[in-house]
Amino acid sequence: MHGMSDTSMNTIAPVLDESLGRNTLSTTLQRVRELNDWLDTRVVGQPILTQRLIIALLCGGHLLVEGAPGLAKTRVVKELAKGVEGEFHRIQFTPDLLPSDVTGTEVFRPEDGTFYFQKGPIFHNLLLADEVNRAPAKVQSALLEGMAEHQVTQGRETFELPGLFLVMATQNPIEQEGTYPLPEAQLDRFLMHIRVAYPPPQNELEILKIARNEVLERETPPPLVLTEAEIFGARKEISELYMADSIERYIVALVSYTRSSTLRGVEYGASPRATIAIDQSARTVAWLDGREYVSPDDVHKVIHDVMRHRIILSFEAEAEGTTPDAVVDETLKMVPVP
Length: 338
What we know:
This protein has about 350 residues and is α/β, with parallel strands linked by helices.
């Protein structure tokens, strides 16, 4: 194990056992794994997407998913909603969408001549923002407040969003005409940016069977429904997972390197929010793997998805074909692993 001596492990192990409790940890982890396994049977050929959605749920973060039409981007969050205690809603983002279509609006009550606030779809636990880049800036900023501040402001009043709140936004990379690119401030609010590829042919055969079974009403229900209390309990366990000081310094060094003048073509590197996101995501990967410590490999598994949307390239670098993923690859080569 990197960055941790046998002595430090002997010191920390009893603390972990006492504070977390192995039985509680094992039960919660087993239930989350069962849900993830079931999700993989409902969304075939996209194991990275399903796992990243589970990670976002456990981290309390939001997910931006980019891919061609028909790759189960919408389906995956709808299926997850069946296995999670909470309400699900989908918003189809269009150029004529209004901020009130997302947050809600004031409605006149004629019997007493007053107004009351009718909450919009953003007040659901799981929200699918379909083709989020098709809505204008005012709508995107309304969504941003909910994602960033966990609240909605209407006039002089502020309304809290549910404790369990996850936004999964989708983008179609093919049709860019008439779209509004997401501002950097909003992109930074997403825990991860996932790119979805086509499934292999053998998986498409399974997809055919799933579609046929749905028509014949032979769907397999989720084996369990995760409660909010279980999700919040898992978040606490993940936060208490042991991470050596050397791993923390490694994460900070990786993020800091993206801001250095050494990297050509990078106008803005990743923000401190990227440091937090890598920490949370790597801890969750380790927890899902059944370990009580975080390793550099856990960091490597999530760093591309966490950094991809947070590195802003110059126009010249983009014209030369440089990508944020290539910048992350170079960063991993230059920063020594503990």
